[in-house]
Write a structure and sequence with these properties.
alpha+beta, 2 domains, 9 helices
Length: about 375
Amino acid sequence: MTFLRNIVLYIVMLGVIVTLHELGHLLAAKAFGVYCKEFSFGFGPKLLSKKGKETEYCLRAIPLGGFVAMAGDTDNSLETKVDMPDLPEERTLTGIARWKRVIIMMAGIMMNILLAIFIYSMMILSTGAYAESTKPAIVEVLPDSPALKAGLKAGDIITKAGFENGLSIAPDTYVELITFLDTYDGNGPWIITVDRNSEKISFDIYPEYKEENQRYMIGISFSNQAVKVVDVNIFNCWKYGFKYSMFILKMTFSSLMTLFQGKNLNQVSGPIGIYSTVSQSVELGFEYYLQLIAMISINVGVINAFPLPIFDGGRVFLLLIELIIGRPLSEKAQNIIMSASMVLLLMLFALVMYNDISKIILGG
């Protein structure tokens, strides 16, 4: 029963994230009059379908994605291709203004971000409070501490923090800094950059694990007023949900950047790894499951923003090229770029499947 429950929750999570992403594309396309033949959750054979006024809404067998089949879309896959030669040009994706096409392409990403903002806002509202914080300015450096030995001083403002594995963040607040530092895996130094009298100075500091605090520390303290708990209601929860979502977005982007540097590749997870994470979150409670949905939704949004033509960001990138050269790329050029992107995507898929299976074999 536990396995069945986890499978259902896994599919529900994917369903919510993918459906809202594709719904963003659909709503934007319909708003600009683009003909949409099909709106589908999943790939492969159809399981269920319902014909609307002009769009067919489908549930397909493989619940690992989805699509909107729009007239004039340059994606020539069998499932998304719309071949309607008698359709007016202004009802095709290529027949509308480029700025409208950019909005259609980016609408899915925006829906993913909005989903995360909604979830985080509701979770913050349920607690009735939110911890606001000031910029991470050091008030005191403790005697005989790693920070003092490295050269940190009271008055320094931390502008960047990073680890040896390439992860880093430019914290806007004390809470962002502490949340990031709590992800430290115990390897290598903390790379801390401070603003000291308008001069940027960097330090490599090896933290010490404090049993009484159950965390790694370098011996700095901040103002007692660094964190202020504010009351939350239905009107202001959206503000704090947005703030927290932007922090998670920043962390996600930083993590993905390390992958392009060839670091932390063994941390990439695919469908199996995500299922395992879903199972763990469910055991911890429904709140953690909701947090996971919000976090993965942001991840989907960020990944889709990357300038590979297989992603929404790549489609926008091609539109920018069109604007620069004053004409669309040739069909041959588009096919070459799309094929190269697909090869990269398949390589990434092979990597994540290898990582997922390795973790199962090695016991995590």
